[in-house]
Design the sequence.
């Protein structure tokens, strides 16, 4: 999970929420499929 923190750490605060939503959606789709 460290790479997620590294990626989100380089983004502006306004973009972190969106990035986390996208990542969580991708993880969820990977788990359900």
Sequence:
């Amino acid at each position: 999970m460290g790479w997620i923190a590294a990626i989100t750490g380089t983004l502006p605060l306004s973009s972190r929420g969106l990035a986390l939503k996208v990542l969580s959606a991708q993880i969820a789709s990977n788990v359900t499929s």
Residues 13-32 form the longest helix (20 residues). Residues 3-32 form one domain. The mean pLDDT is 78.
